[in-house]
C-alpha cells in the first residue's frame, strides 16, 4: 500500500529529536576544545591608539591573544563584499579584527583563546585598549547630513544610490503621471530596526589534524563558508570540510559569511594545533552580528477616482549600519517587491543606502519586503480613505488579473533577472481572506479595527541547488543536499518528495543537509528557496534513480521498463504484483561485486549467474550503485503571494493594543506539506507581531545600543502572539517540475502593514511609523485628538 | 556572559552563613533570578558568593491572624500556592513567569529592591517589615533587627541591609477587617516588569466609611506609597479624585519603553481601577 505523500500533513520527523533535547547544536560539540572570546569595541567610532594585552597574561588558563597585527596577511584582509552591485559605489566591509578604526559598538578588536570561556572572558576584561574617540554617526538624518563620516573615504556616508523607473505604457514617467492624476497624496513612513535574533547565536568550532581542517559552523551556507575559509587560510579546497550541525534558527543573519569568527577560529586552531570553539552569547549577537529593517520612505502617489494608481514615486533612505558585506540586497528587494500584487501606472523608486556607526544591516526574514509592503499597503489604505472607499475595493481595482500572467513588472529583481510574476490569482485570494476574517460583516466601533495587507514574494532564487539520492542494499534511501537547515522541516519535506518520487515508505528515507562531505555544491538557505530549489533538485535526482532502478529491475524480471512501477519499495510489473523485486535487491544488482560480505551481496558476485556474460559487469554509460545526482537551476524566481487580515482592540484608557484575530491566506503553489507551511506562517506572523508592536533597536546619540538584552529588547512571548487562522490557495508555478513556490519568509512580510491598518481603523488617525507601543499610541492620541 | 571569578560558600546553618558574611566581602545568593544575570553580564563582581539555599530553617512561612511571615528561602511559587494573603497572592501572579517563580524568592525580590517589582509595593502598602540578621563578632552570636518597609527601600536596587546582613524573613501584615485589595498593572508583555502598577488597600469601617492606601511601582525610586486617608462612605467615595491624588504623587521618568507622561497617565488609570476593585471587595467583606 502506498500512501500519498506529496501534499500530506506529515508530522515533522525532526521534532522528536529537537524537542527532547537530542539536537546537536554547535555548542554541544567540541567539549574538549579551547574557548575563544573577544574584546569588542565599547565605542561607536574611535581610532585605536594602543592595545595593552599585558595585564591579561597572568590569567590562569590563557592560551593566546591576537590583535589584527598578529594576523597573517591573508587572514587579516578585509572580509569579502559578497554581492557586488554597480550602484554600490562605496561598498565597505570590516576586518576580522579591527584595523586602526572601530565603527560600531561591538566590533571585534582582540581575540583571546583560553582553556575555557570563563578564563577567556576574564582575560578580555583585563586587556586595555586606548581609544581616540570620534564623533559617531547615528540615525538616518545625521548620516544624510554628512557632517561626520563613518568611513573617511565615503563622502556623505552614501554607500549606494539607485534610481529605477518603470514608465507607464504610454511612456509617461511616474512624476509626470502623478502631476496629471486627478488625486495625489504624499507622506512619510518610518520603520525601525529589528533583527533575526535566532534562539541559537552564531558559533564556530574548528579541528585541524595537521593536514585537514574540519569546521562546524552555525551557518545558513556551509558550502560557501568552506570556500571562504579555504581562501582565507590558503588551503586547497579538498582539505577543508564545513558542517552545519543542528542550527537553532537563522532567519537571515547566518547567511552572511564568513563572519570574522569563521575565519579566526579555524586559523587559531591551525596555529595552535588545538581544537578551538567560539559560541556567540546574546550580548554579542545584539552588538556584533546584524540588524535589519530601518528605513525612512517618502511617498508620492497619483490616482484616479477608482483608486487606481497612475503614478507612484518612492524615495527610500536605508540605514546600512557600518558595513555592507551583503551588498544592497535589502533595499533592492524593498524597491522591487514594493509593487506587490498590483499593476501601477508608472513607478519610480530611488534609494540611498547610508552608513551609520551601528551594527551592519543584512537580510532578516522578509529581507526588505516588510518595508516595501508597508509602503504599498499604507498607500492603498490612504487612497481608500481619501476617496471614502472600502480598502479592499481599492486593492481589487489595482490587482494584476489572473489572465495577465506571466506579468512583467519591468524591473530587475534581486537575482539579476527580470521581475516577472509566473502565476497567481489575487482576486480569488482577496475573496478568501475577506471571507475568512469576515470583512464585510465586521462591526467597527471606537477601539476596534480591522486591517489588511497583501504581498507578493519572489522566492526560490538561483543560481542552483543539487540533490544526491542513493538507495543502499538494505533498501534505505539516503538523500543529501548541500543547503542547510535551521529548523524548517527539511528532513520531512525533502523525504516526502523522495518517497513520493521513488515509491518507498517515508520511514526508509533519511535526509542530510549542509554537510560538505556529503554534498559539496550548494548556495544556501535564504530567500524562501530551499523547497523550490533543493526540492526540485532532489525530485530530479530521484527520477534518475528511479529510471535506473526500473532498467535493472526490468532486466531481472525480464520485463519492459515501461511496464514497471514502484510501490512500497517494491518494483513490480504493472497489473502483476507477484512479479516483483525489492529495491534493496535492485541496489545489490546495481553494484557488481567480487566479494560477498553477506547473503544479499552474494547475488551480485561473479558466480551468482545474475549477470550476462556478454556485457561488461558495469555496462557502458552506467555507473555502479543505485544512486543519482541532479541539479535544479531556476530560470528566475517564482512568485508566491499572501493576504493577511487582523482585528485589533485598543484600550481607551491604557492604549494597550491587543490583536484579537489574525487570518492568513497563502499561496505557495503546490503544497509539499501544509502543516509545515502553516508552521512557517505561524512563526513568521509571530516575528511580524514582534516587528509591529514590540521590537526596536534603541541607539543613543553615542551609538550605544541601550537595549542589548532580552530584558529590554522585547520579542513577543507565546502569550503575545494571536492564534493564526490559515487558508491556502494553490496556483502551481509553471517554472519548476514540482510546481512549488517558497514559503519560509511569507508570514512575517505584511504584519506591520496589517497591524498599522487595523490600529488606524480603530483609532481614526494615520499610523505611519512602526512598531507602535502603548506609549506611542497614547502620545499619538494626544497629538491627533488634543 | 560568564561571571568573573568568585569564591563560593554554601553554609548549612544560619550561624555559618552570618559568620561568612561578617568575614568576607560577599553577596547572598538566593533564587539567583536577579543576581545570576547581573553576574553574567559582569554588572556585579562580588569576591564571595554566599549561597543560602542549603541553610536549614529559612524556607518556612508562618501564618498567624496578624499576618504572614515569609522565610528567606520561600519561593514565589510556593507562597503563591499557599495563598495565605490575598494581596500577596495576586501580586505574585504578576511576577515574571512560572519558571522564574519556581526559583525566585519573595525575600530576595524585596532585598533586590527593583523599583518596578511588585512585592516591595505590597510590603509598603501593608506597612510590613523585613527581619535582618547579622553576626555579632564581639558577642559571638546572631543579632536580629526588624526593618519597617518605609525604611527598607532606600533607592533603586538599594535596600537598608548592611553588607554583612542577611534578610531572614519578611512580614506581610494581614488586611484589616472589612478590607479589599487589588493590584493593577500594565506591562509590555505578559510577565514583564510593569511600565506602571498600582496596588491598593481599601478598608471599610463599621460605619461604611472607606480608608484607602495605595502604592505604585515603576514610577519612582522605590514603591511610592500614598495614604489617601478617609474618603467618606464607600459607595460614594470619589475614586477618580483619589486616583488623581495618587497620580500627582508620582514623578515618573521616561525610558525606552514609555514616556513620563504616559506612565503618569497610567498611574491615574490604574489607581482608579485598583481603588474601585479594592473598594468593591472591601464593601463585600464588610457586608456593606
Ligand atoms: C525574565 C525575568 C522576569 C522577571 N520579572 C519580574 C517581575 O515582573 N516582577 C518582579 O518583581 N520580579 C521579576 N523578576 C525578578 C524575580 O522576581 C527575582 O526572583 C527576584 O527579583 C529576586 O529573587 P531571587 O531569590 O532570585 O534573588 P537573587 O537573584 O538570588 O538575589 C537578588 C539580590 O538580593 C540579594 N538577596 C537575596 N536574598 C537575600 C537575603 N535573604 N538576604 C540578603 N540579601 C539577599 C542578593 O544578594 C542579590 O543582591 C524577573 C526575573 C527574570 C529573570
From TrEMBL, chain A:
Region (Disordered), start-end ranges: 606-627
Aldehyde oxidase/xanthine dehydrogenase a/b hammerhead domain span: 20-135
Keywords: Molybdenum, Oxidoreductase
Pfam family, one: Ald_Xan_dh_C
The keyword GTP-binding is assigned to this record: no
Gene3D superfamilies to which the protein is assigned, alphabetical: Aldehyde oxidase/xanthine dehydrogenase, a/b hammerhead, Aldehyde oxidase/xanthine dehydrogenase, molybdopterin binding domain
GO MF, one annotated term: oxidoreductase activity
Name assigned to this protein: CO/xanthine dehydrogenase Mo-binding subunit
Organism listed in the record: Nonomuraea fuscirosea
UniProtKB/TrEMBL annotation, chain B:
GO molecular function terms listed in the Swiss-Prot or TrEMBL record: FAD binding; oxidoreductase activity
Pfam families, sorted: CO_deh_flav_C, FAD_binding_5
Residue intervals of the FAD-binding PCMH-type domain: 1-177
Record key words, sorted: FAD, Flavoprotein, Oxidoreductase
Highest taxon above the source species: Bacteria
UniProt xrefs under InterPro entries: CO_DH_flav_C, CO_DH_flav_C_dom_sf, Diverse_Substr_Oxidored, FAD-bd_PCMH, FAD-bd_PCMH-like_sf, FAD-bd_PCMH_sub1, FAD-bd_PCMH_sub2, Mopterin_DH_FAD-bd
Record keyword Repeat present: no
PANTHER family: XANTHINE DEHYDROGENASE SUBUNIT C-RELATED (PTHR42659:SF2)
Protein known as: Carbon-monoxide dehydrogenase medium subunit
Source organism: Nonomuraea fuscirosea
